[in-house]
Each structure stands twice: as C-alpha cells, then as structure tokens.
Amino acid sequence: MRLGDRIKAADVAPVESSDFLIAEPAQQVAEDPFEGFKQRAQERLYARLGGRITDPSMTETELRQMLVQELSHAVDDDAAPLSTAERAQLVEEICRDVIGYGPIQRFLDDASITEIMVLSDKSIYVERDGRLELTDAHYITQEQLRNVIERIVSGVGRRIDESSPTVDARLPDGSRVNAVIPPLAVDGPQLTIRKFAKRPLMAADLIRLGSFSEEMSDFFTNCVGGRLNILVTGGTGTGKTTMLNVLSAAIPDSDRIVTIEDAVELRMHQRHVVRLEARPPNIEGRGEVSIRDLVRNSLRMRPDRIVVGEVRGAEALDMLQAMNTGHEGSLSTLHANSPRDALSRLETMVMMAGFELPVKAIREQVVGAVDLIVHLSRMRDGSRRVTRVVEVEGIEGDTITLSDLFVFDHSLGRDEDGTVLGSVVPTGIRPKFEARLSDYGFTLDDGIFGDPHAGMTLKRAN
To answer: Which CATH number fits domain 203-449: 3.40.50.720, 2.40.40.10, 3.30.1600.10, 3.40.50.300?
Structure first.
C-alpha cells in the first residue's frame, strides 16, 4: 500500500496538545493525504521552534540536527502509519524545505521555469515558456515566507523590516529577488524571483530561439568591437539583461571593464572585470552608496568600458558625460516602450540630477553619447524578440533624429498554435557610424542591409 493510501486509511484526525492546535481541512487531507500530513508536521515544527529556525548563530549542521529531533517528535505525535524509510524520507523533505527556500525550492531547481511569484501564503505562480501558471504549492504561514525572505536578503547583506519594507537582492546563483512585506504589502509578504539560468544564454541560444538572426549577431559583434555606445531598451521581462550579457560577451579580453549594478546579475567572462554593487542605507539611514556614486567613482578607475546594469535615475547625467569624454563602448539598459520613449526617459532622468540644463543641451549630450538603441519586446506567444535596432543620427532643431536599421515584420501573423511567425528584417538603410567601425577594423557585410525581405527570415525553435 502506498504511503498516501495508508495515511488515508488511518483516518488521521486533527491533534490538540498543550503546545498547539493543528486543524487540517478534511477535504485537503482526503485529496492529498501525504501532503496534508507533511503540512501538519511542518506546522508542528514551526510551533515548537518559532524564531530558533532563523537563528543566525546556528550552523546549517546544528540547525539540521535540531530539525531532525523536533520532527521526530512531531511525527510521533501524529501517529501516522509510516515505515522507517518513509519516516526518514518525510523528515528529509521537510528539512530541505526549512533549510532551503520551502515550497519554491522545486521551482528554483526546475530549469524550465524563468520566474516565481509568491502571493503571501495563498498561492505561488510561475512563468514557463513566457506564460504564467498557477501551481499547487503554497507556504503554510506568512511567518514561514517571512523567514525565507529574511534568509535570502541577509545572505547578501541587505535587510527587510517595517522601517524598510522593500528590498532587492539576489540568490547565490545570481537570480534576481524582490520582496515586499507589510505594511506596504496589504495581504502579506510578496516575493518575486527572476531566475538566472545555470548556463547563461549566449548569442547562439538567442538565434535558436528566434530573438534575432545570425547576420544580426555579427552586426552586434562589430558594433561592440567598434566601441559604439549602446542602450538596450524594452519593457519589463523582455530580456534586456540577457541581451546586455550577450552584447558584453563581444568586448575583447584586452579591455578593462567596470560593471555597476543595483544587485549583481551580469555574467562577464572576460579576465579584467571590476564588479561594483550599490548599497542601500543601513538601519540608521546611513551608508547608502547609489548607482550614481558608483558611476562617478568608476571614472577614477581607468575603465575602458563601463557597463551599467540599468539606468533609472540621476546617474544618467554622469553616464552620458562619461560616454562623451572618452569612455566609448559603454553599455546599459533602460526601461521604455520604444526607442523614442527611451530618449525621453533619459532626458527626464538627467533633469533628476538637479542641474537646470536647457532641454536642447541635454539632447545634444544624448546625441553625442548614444550611438545605437537595441529595443526588445515580449510577444503574445511569450517569446522575446529584438523588434527594432535604431541609430541615433543627430539633432535637427530641438528634435533628435533616429534611423531604423532593423525592424520586426509583423505581417506574417501567427500560426495555429499562436506562435509569432514574423522576423527582424533590415530597412535597407546603412548606418552613418559605418566609417567609425572601419577605423577600428570592423567591416559590415553588404548583405545585411540588402533586400529587407530576403535572407533574414527567422524560425522559432520548437
């Protein structure tokens, strides 16, 4: 007889003791008796141990020993018909949940999942192949989720409490973490994790997935090698950081690279890389080091390339000045719905620096700094595609002039499965920076800018 069937046959009832009351809904036990028993055992464990589970002075070995001992008592109290092997399996699974990240651990281990969204102790959603899925997992209590959040943020020197109820952090593998707790999160703690693949996606992977073509990959390599300043733009979840990683892979090993991020996410494979990470204020409100501070400091570090994970504030002015004063070949990302919107946002962020600069002066700075904008979009089928590649040509009057080099052709529509059939095609316009690339020894293939409907069709991999 299977373990679940045996537990069901035993008709396990809610147990009351002097320490706690456990009441498992009968329907849930009937549907999944093993999970119901496992949940009751975890509730008993949290009731017995309380805050000792997150005691930072305890090593993982000491914590595991304590958990095994207390879980044995919890299993004995429930008197479920478990064999020795089944008992050991149950204790091991619960220990893994408590020492690890609980119910989300299996989603973190699943390579097909790209994002995890925890809605308090009510439900957990995941993103797979660009689509959201509701899972059958959830945290037992809000306290259990809160303990997991504190374990994550404390591991990277961050904090989260009522005085600082939001935090950006990362997991040891580089996955991006955002957490919000009450009083800001009205319904309980909220946790969002953007996973990073164990093997970062390279240009060949994005070509296979249909994000761009092989010809465009060569074009990007030449642009990075020719020290163009490039902005990667797009909405949330469009793959900007992945694209930034792919572009940065084309930076030669001979260059000294300084990366600047809120939370370290970029994976640079070059030998000479200095990684800088911003720091939030401490509990007294002191010690903050902003992205702008790091951009300013990087200029004193003799960088050949400056790579800013995301520009979102007053650091935009310092970055533009760096690009205009000899630090060519710099890269960054920026949230925007279109290349034109990206430049408008850039202007707004420069104004946030506190200097009363004329709009035209700001736009002249932008034109002198930014050479190329690579815009990404998330399609209705969940795929991420490069949809526009735009050259920043110059300024006419008060208007920045842009030139589309590549655009996404939507005319093919979608197939019966909903997969977008379009592709990125050239407009036939040759970039004005082509002569500059030649100075660095890079030549663009004439075929890239030929017939905009020939030789550039992409097929999405199954």
So the answer is: 3.40.50.300
Q: Give CA separation, 65 vs 51, 60, 69, 75, 215, in Å.
A: 16, 9, 6, 16, 57
Q: How far apart are CA 84 and CA 81, in angstroms?
A: 10
Instruction: Give strand pairing partners of 203.
Output: none
Taking only the tens place, the pLDDT of each residue in 314-369 is 889 988 988 888 788 999 999 999 999 999 999 999 998 888 888 999 999 999 99
* Size of the chain, expressed as the number of residues it contains: 462
Strands in 244-368 per DSSP E: 257-261, 273-277, 305-308, 331-335
Give me the helix-helix angle, 33-49 and 84-99, nearest 10°. Answer: 60
As a whole number of angstroms, the distance between CA 348 and CA 372 comes to: 19
Residue 403: CB atoms within 10 Å: 15
pLDDT of 280 reads: 78
Are 307 and 330 in contact by the 8 Å Cβ rule? The answer is yes
pTM of the predicted structure, to 2 decimals? 0.74
Mean pLDDT, all residues of the chain: 81
Q: Give the architecture (CATH level 2) of 100-198.
A: 2-Layer Sandwich (3.30)
Asked whether the beta carbons of 277 and 263 are under 8 A apart, the reply is yes
Distance CA 432, CA 371 (A): 10
Residue 54 Cα distances to 12, 144, 165, angstroms: 30, 10, 19
Parse the chain into domains and list their residue ranges. 1-99, 100-198, 203-449
The DSSP string of 248-269 is: HTTS-TTS-EEEEESS------
User: CA 392 to CA 368: how far, in whole Å?
Assistant: 9
* Residue 325 C-alpha from the chain's centroid: 31
Contact in structure between 407 and 456 (CB atoms under 8 Å): no
Q: Write out the H or E segment, with its range, that includes residue 99.
A: helix 84-99
User: Please, how many CA atoms are within 13 Å of residue 92, restricted to the half-sphere of its CB?
Assistant: 6
Cβ atoms of 308 and 319 within 8 Å: the answer is yes
Q: What's residue 374's pLDDT?
A: 96
pLDDT at 88: 75
Spatial neighbors of 425 by CB under 8 A, at least 6 apart, are 406, 407, 408, 409, 452, 453, 456
Looking at residue 201, its amino acid is L
